[in-house]
Amino acid sequence: MKATHDINYVSAAEAVRLIESGDHIYLQGSTSTPELLEKALADRGHELRDVTVITGFGVCRGESPLCRPEFKDTFLVNSFFVNNGFRRWINEGYGSMTPRFLGEVPQLIRDGTWRVDVVLLNCSAPNEEGLVSFGVSGDVACSAVECADRIIAQINPEMPFSYGDPTVHISRIDACVRCDTPLVEVPTPEPTEAEIRIGEYIAERIPDGATLQIGVGGIPNAVIRALSGHRHLGLHTEAMTDGVVPLLESGVIDNSLKKALPGKSVASLALGSKRLYEYMDGNPDIIFRDVAWTNNPYVIGQNPKVMSINSCLEIDLTGQICADSIGTRIFSGVGGQHDFVFGSSLSEGGLSFLAMLSTTNKGHNKIKPVLTEGAGVVTTRFQTNYIVTEYGAVDLRGKTLAERAKLLISVAAPQFREELERAAAERFGYAFLRLR
Hints:
The chain is α/β, with parallel strands linked by helices and 436 residues long. The protein has helices spanning 12-15, 35-43, 87-91, 105-110, 141-147, 193-203, 218-225, 244-250, 274-280, 291-294, 297-300, 337-346, 401-410, 417-428, 430-433, and strands at residues 24-27, 51-55, 75-79, 96-97, 118-123, 131-133, 150-155, 163-164, 167-169, 175-178, 211-214, 234-235, 239-241, 265-267, 269-271, 286-288, 306-311, 314-316, 321-322, 325-326, 329-330, 351-355, 367-368, 386-389, 392-395. It has a seven-stranded parallel sheet, with helices on both faces. The chain has a six-stranded mixed sheet with strand order 12-11-17-22-24-25, with helices on both faces.
């Protein structure tokens, strides 16, 4: 329940006066970038110097106002997951990216590897106890709030109040700014026919009583749509999306067989439409936790039959997965893919699925003899389980390199299979040829 508290509001311009040259700032992500504060900080760009801005996973309305050439020595961007607000800036060399498994990023803050002086937040109105929630973005914000010297917040009634870790008492906030800007919405994409096939291939391998981790995008949503006939599913995921709401409302997801927070749907951040945000708001059956907990493989592995479902950009014939870059160009980050792939392997009956369309929008092959030069390996060939395209699902677990190549070729786009056969024969020799 929301309540009215005496809050000494200031303007955004006044609030960011608390920021000094040399400060390290954590900028909240998910769909809740504190845009008023970000703009006010940019307006001070000519007064400040050497301000480190730590960013992560997020969906922004547009490019950050901090990314202007005249600010190249003012705002030094360090991103652990490159989002659309900072992608061009980083790829042009003005900012940089720190590789780190998402579940391990909070440790960098808590052990002092990354200093956080100031946190910029987008928060709900306070409840009766004076707690505000930064509900759609628990992830790394929890550790940043815990360790920061100063907290500056937009108090925004559009922010849902989430139970769990992403709350802070209003008395801890050093400056509050009124805000009523709606959160960014990420509509659920309508799956294509090819994505629907992928979703069905995965769904038919998911047993009743499984615990789901579902990534973001058309393919994960196609999987969700194919699960309507399942029973007693659980949800322990990094990102909550619109797609899970019908499964929660219908009781398909009831969390009855989970071991970690049984009876509760667990997430660390949310990406969706207003429908999702309204469903989350004050819902005691949904718990948001620090990403250091949600993405801890040993916590994940406590749950039965963990089904980790994620997407990727390309794969080579040995099962190496690239999900963060297009060649040398950083596109996103590792996110929680590794955390849940590993966690699923620790779960009794757990499986991991890495899914993608077999070709790019331009018709280029995404199953390759070797990864594109400069491509990052997010999931190693030592961890790969199921690979799924619109042409089928293959299980690489326990398979030799030659056997993997044969299986992967079988789910590649038909027009590329002959050249992949030649590449596999050259690379693996008789070990591959004898499998024909």
